[in-house]
Here is the input.
Amino acid sequence: MSKYGMLIDETRCTGCRGCQVACKQWNDLPGEQTRNRGTYTNPPALSAKTWNLIQYTEVETNGRAGFYFLKHACMHCEKPACASVCPVGALYKTTEGPVVYDDTKCIGCRYCMTACPFSIPTFEWGKGLLDQALIRKCNFCIDRVSNGLTPACAKTCPSKAITFGERDKLIAQGEAQIRKYPDKYVNRVYGKDEVGGTSILYLSAIPFDQLGLPRVGTTPVTALSEQVMEYTLPFAGAWAATLAGLAILFRLRNRGAQHAADDVHKEKSA
Amino acid sequence: MTTLNATLNRFRISPIILIMLALMALAVVVALVRYLFGIGAISNLSDAYPWGMWISFDLLCGVALAAGAFTTASAVYIFNDKRFTPILRPAILTGFLGYLMVIVALMVDLGRPERIWHLIVYWNPHSVMFEVGWCVMLYTTVLALEFSPLVFERFGWKLPLNIVHRLTMVFVILGTLLSTLHQSSLGSLFLATPGKVSPLWFSAFLPVYFFLTAAAVGPAMVIVESFISSRAFYRGLETELLGTFAKVIPPVLGVYLLLKVVDLTVSGKWVYAFRDGMSVLFWIEIIGFVVLPIVLFSMPKVRQNGQSLFGAGLLVVGGVVLNRFNVSLIGWPRPADTAYFPSWMEFAITFGIIAAGVVAYALVARFFPLFVEDPVTKRAHGVSPEILRRSQFLVFPEAARVQAIAAIAEEQDIAEDQVIFRQGDPAQALYILLDGSVNLYSTRGPGATNELHLGTIKPGDPFGISTLIDPFVLTASARAATACRVLKIDGKQLRALGAADPHLGQTLALRAAQAALTRMSWARTRLAGAPS
Here is the structure.
């Protein structure tokens, strides 16, 4: 189990986008030109230039319109699908908790993007061979965390919606918070068990799927594919032996048939 | 225009090849744009659609449609059925080119194609893509080795040919093993995306489904490819052989269908089959492309006719293509406000690669021993009865008569300026011109100046008709005006056929007489116009 995590109490979030900007500043990410799409969510989605995004949702509860926010970024899964499916092992889970990316290995197959249950990884679509396109996503400010600092987003949050700490303690803290204010929260810490657990944990006042977090089971999405990969080598051995056996069998059978035909022929001529 | 035509004729470049070359050139330009400005510059792929048509078609369908190589090779060598030997080389070539095409497509689709070798040095054995990568590399190598005898034979390199021959069995078992792993692993790729693949297609059996459909589409592709190449190269169609090979399709698709039905029942997913657009696609796939081919290929009538085989084979191919798109692209949950349809430049890449495959096939067919004799009977297989239809001279309403002639005919390539036969020689064979142009001339003595041009034979016309007229001595010489392709029918065997079947003999003799009359009128015109 990983060491660090972040508990995000979405009821405390004010939608100020401070974390979104802090992320860009620390990671030196450029701005994106966007247009008004009739929503506060801006830019419209995560991209290679935006690794952390506040998503705005309007939901009617008890006849009153409510404005809710989701800090959307990499969940840093305990069993990350991106790391499991990466053919060259460019993505991997660190012992500290963050799921990070070795950009010297990546071949750009984009299987991580396809497999991620939260659709987090993004790709630099506008870069050619000379610009060296890469996969981009939140790296939990691994450079800060490994030097004893908190991630840029957690550091900057003015309403203390983002708590950085040890994951186990954060889960306990989240559950205590729910027990303390049962009317305020959905009775679950999202990320405690989702896809085998994630380093990023959420508390919310409205159902998580309304907030924009997908319904995913509690098993890692790659459980089945990893199991199949484990069976592959033994299967290959058995299948090779079967094929060789079949080849020998059919050769002998044909030879037998040939002999029988020859015998019949001999009898006839005799 | 005439000069262009002449040039094309001289190098035997058909307009089709010209179109293919244009498509290839366009793809090269588009690829250049991609390498300079990124995948986003030429495609509609996005963070919401990281995989598009290139993965669904060029990779998934490309590999599946290359399955003819391993199915044919295992039929010939593992199941030791040497009857299928004549279709082995074209099947291996299709598979080999198919895999090369997949690699070329990946070099466009991969974000960092220059790092493809990372697959060899950086391993992640948990990743299905790791297995896919290794299978592509290893199986392409095996296919190259399985193809290599054509090259060694062509250049007469005996030693490597012997070595490869001795290792054939190893290559075939390795190839079948790698194909099994690769075909199934393409299905396993989507085991990692359980919430994304549409529920009608998502299953723990995806690897089995992908393998079974590949095993069914292998023979279907061999049929489709043989049919097309028989038309393109005026070659015989091994209808009987392909019909026998096609027998494997219904049981394989049957197992697939049964497994799928049980799977959907056990997992309680039939509700999804009557719900939305995906349900419609599901039924189209199952009824049109699985049930229908099972029924068609089970009918002897279908298996005995080249065109029906081709049609039913296309259904299986279409089914696999639709299936791969349904699994990998259509019906996936995507963020709101996003959509994907391939850009014209994505199509340009795909079509350019297909065109390159077609050109490569044509080149190999032209310069390498691709279509070989039947090793069992050690003689040319005769030709397809279909080819006989290209000449009025050989048309008979009765299929048996046409087949009898087809069985003793063979196709020959004749180089430009080659003399096919000489006046005064015994007439040993009747010829039908298939392609090109042949000049008939009469000789008054040695030297070109003493040649009297009698007329030009056009495709479909017979020549060497003296073969049918007693005393069977040639009354003119024939020379190929261009490179051409002819149908050669052995005179002795043809006359024997005529003797055994008097109606056939009489009809042929009558037609020969009519043709002779026409030629006489040519000669008369020539003589009237000739300076004395």
